[in-house]
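Internal tracking record. Fields below are filled automatically when a chain is submitted to the structure queue. Please do not edit lines marked as system-generated. If the sequence contains nonstandard residues, flag them in the REMARKS field before resubmitting.
Queue: standard
Priority: normal
Entity type: single polypeptide chain
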Amino acid sequence: MSDELSSQQIEQARKLFAGPCDFMLGVAALKQLPEALKPEIALAGRSNVGKSSLINALTGRNTLAKVSNTPGRTQQLNYFNLGDQLYMVDMPGYGYAKVSKSQREAWTQLIFDYLKGRPTLACVFILIDSRHGVKDTDIELMKMLDSAAVQYRIILTKTDKIKKSDLEKTSDKIIALLKKHPAAYPGLIPTSSEKGMGIPETRAVMAGYGV
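SYSTEM-GENERATED OUTPUT FOLLOWS
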């Protein structure tokens, strides 16, 4: 991880995420988007990568985001208001085949239209399962964000389920890959929603985009 975070930043972020964080609305079409008043952090990733678990871990709540073992549960852009400082946007998972083609295409179009056209989108956090590494669908999203000049960061999930040596290899491979992508932040954050690893650092990085 390349971020230099102070203890003060981490503590301020802890207080922010411990405060109010309310579900605002679910967006199934761009016309339903809320007014662009605050910076937005979007969380994207393949289906079942652990987005809901990460949101719950960040906010210290068990039920803020619904956790399901069924990939494709999130079918819209779910907006959360974090302390009136920024919006977190939980995006539909991508890359999962067991939904209808038309449904998958509709989700994909919604994701891409939002990412390319939202003026207050400060950063996209792309979640990657540490056990599986970067997949072709992740690369597709990264290339699209590169072309749209939207900054993104990589969050590794489920790192408690992988050996330390394998985690280091995966991290090194991804960091090397990021050098080829102009909109990518050059570091990554390894996390475990179950063990709490990387959660304070992720909070601090996200809070840095707030108003």
